[in-house]
Amino acid sequence: MAPREDHPSGDSRFEMVDRTLKKFQYQQDALIEVLHTAQEAFGYLDKDLLIYVAQQLGLPHSWVFGVATFYHFFSLEPQGEHSCNVCMGTACYVKRAAEIVTGLRRHFGIEPGETTEDGQLSLATARCLGSCGLAPVVVIDGEVIGKEEPEETIHRLVKLLEGEPMEGDGETREEVTA
Ligand code: FES
Fold first, then answer.
1. Pocket of ligand 1 from Cβ distances under 6 Å
2. What is the domain range of residue 58?
3. What is the tens place of the pLDDT at every residue in 109-153?
4. Which residues of 123-133 are buried (b: 16+ CB within 10 A; e: fewer)?
């Protein structure tokens, strides 16, 4: 099937999914890998995302929904109101990604895979998000932030949970080209 160029919502996170699709040349047996990337980028697999993956791979929607619901490591529901996903791939790891996770664990009292008791923040870790040149990479509420510092991630999230929009430095965000 010819890959679709348009994204359902113009969301830059679809570019991560697209990279995996291209890496596996849109082969249908790459479904699990593509779903992993999709979940890492979005935090969970919603209906539109599953439909997008199904269309890109030329698979029936029902098949993709079936696979996503069969495996326990896929989540079809959003978690906390806000999400922070820290890339722990090799390039990010050597650039102190583990320190980012440690800082977040200590500050917010949650482990990766958990949500704060007030339902405000979910913390996750991911394998390579495909933006190694920006390592270390953190995705906060779907926004890809590169060259991140441990203290800076905490600061961003504290402000976010206080209701302030995220501060942007304009230089380390991944551009949206959808
Ligand atoms: S290792 Fe983090 S983006 Fe590649």
1. 87, 89-92, 128-132, 135, 137
2. 14-70
3. 998 878 898 989 989 888 888 899 999 999 998 899 999 999 999
4. bbbbebbbbbe
